[in-house]
Design goal:
Layout: E1 2-5, E2 8-16, E3 19-26, E4 29-33, E5 35-40, H1 51-57, E6 62-64, H2 66-71, H3 75-80, H4 83-88, E7 94-96, H5 100-105, E8 108-112, E9 117-120, E10 127-130, H6 132-142, E11 146-148, H7 159-179, E12 186-191, H8 197-210, E13 214-217, H9 226-239, E14 246-248, H10 254-262, E15 267-270, H11 272-278, E16 281-284, E17 287-290, H12 310-314, H13 317-325, H14 330-355, H15 359-369
Parallel strand pairs: 5-6, 5-15, 6-7, 7-11, 11-12, 12-13, 13-14, 14-15
Antiparallel strand pairs: 1-2, 2-3, 3-4, 8-9, 9-10, 16-17
Amino acid sequence: MTTSNNLFQFEIEAAEGNARAGRFHTVHGDVITPIFAPVGTQAAMKGGITTAQLAEVGANLVLANTYHLHLRPGEDLVDELGGVHQFMQWHGPMLTDSGGFQVFSLAQMRKVDEDGVTFRSYIDGSKRRLTPESAIQIEEKLGADIIMAFDECAEPYDHRYSLAAMERTHRWAVRCKAAHSRTDQALFGIVQGGIFPDLRQRSAEFIAELDTPGIAIGGLSVGETKQEMHTVLDQVNQVLPMEKPRYLMGVGSPEDLVNGILRGVDIFDCVLPTRLARHKAAMTMTGRVNLLNASNTRDPQPIDPECGCYTCQHFSRAYLRHLFVAKEPLGGTLVSIHNLYTLLDLVRRCRAAIFEGRFTQFASDFLANYRV
């Protein structure tokens, strides 16, 4: 099953139920789905992870943040220095969001109107303005392969606000599509609508009609329950076109990846693996491990004896605990490597299970054994 839009194609290579394994073609290589994208917020990974280490753990797609790069160092400088790929020395596929979520979650003194958003920088308090057109201009100067339309992310339980934000997101998506001029970038529209079935239905139908190369699902993992997120995903899965890749924004715990893939999601991103590492927590295929626990003081075993990452192949839980107690930054780096590898290995296993026609059983076994 193949569709084309400008230079982009999405090929579904195998499917089982709603789960899909595929390839999304970009100028910088294929995005192999399902995939988890590590987040390099300011064109750098937290935890001191280099792009060489990203490649070693198996990263295929990396995300950078439009809002943060706009504030510092500025899209003009990134453009002058060859675009975000050259700037951060990552030469595989890249994705940038539009800055919409950050404007609505981080910006000070925010004021929304039909044309865009006025806000103050969290860095220096300077007054800034983003519109659909300026957001696209910033993303074009950054130069990622996949870019997002400018959207308004609303509080998930307020129907009135969710309706207004969704309708504004739709109008802004039309303007983003009209403003987008680079043929080497795939623009994704974003489905919004909080937890409300009527709004999610309308939004999925509208964004599907825009016929962008892919579709993002926004406004989740922002305070709703897991079941509410699953209900939204089940609903939009029935509406969104099968032949377009689906990107669930800001979701990245192991159980959420498996549940998302079960519901037709192809692409995920989240800051969680490096954030947990900075807080001394490791991800495993059965749940999280608190490395500060006293039980790890003399433990010679790695975080996960079955893990193939650099950290688990070389270092013990005792050593990692020591690094955290001694406040050595290396601890965060080594656990970040492990956490990223764990998520990327998980999606690799999911992909293999889809090809082998056993993903439903794989997901059932995984979720039954995973400790939240």
